Amino acid sequence: MKKQMLAENTRAKQAEDKRAKLLDAALNLFETRGFDGVAVPEIAAKAGVAVGTVYRYFETKDALVNALYRQIKQNYNNAVLAPLAPGLPTREIFS
User: What's the whole-model pTM score?
Assistant: First the structure.
């Protein structure tokens, strides 16, 4: 039972790592060449995975860029908005 749980945790961590590599590779390529200038096989190659792996995590390139947007927005919220007191009036936030 313990070995099974360890194996499941390892697989989950590996999946999370692959997803993160794909997002990092996509961001790097999109920054330099734009969304339309990058093909899915290039993202896979930069991440060091097979093309099919991209589609295992993201249905389309649009889905990948949307996930990337959500990740960046969440990171921003965690860094900038989360430290603010809940219910703080907007005027006080920017004063």
Answer: 0.75
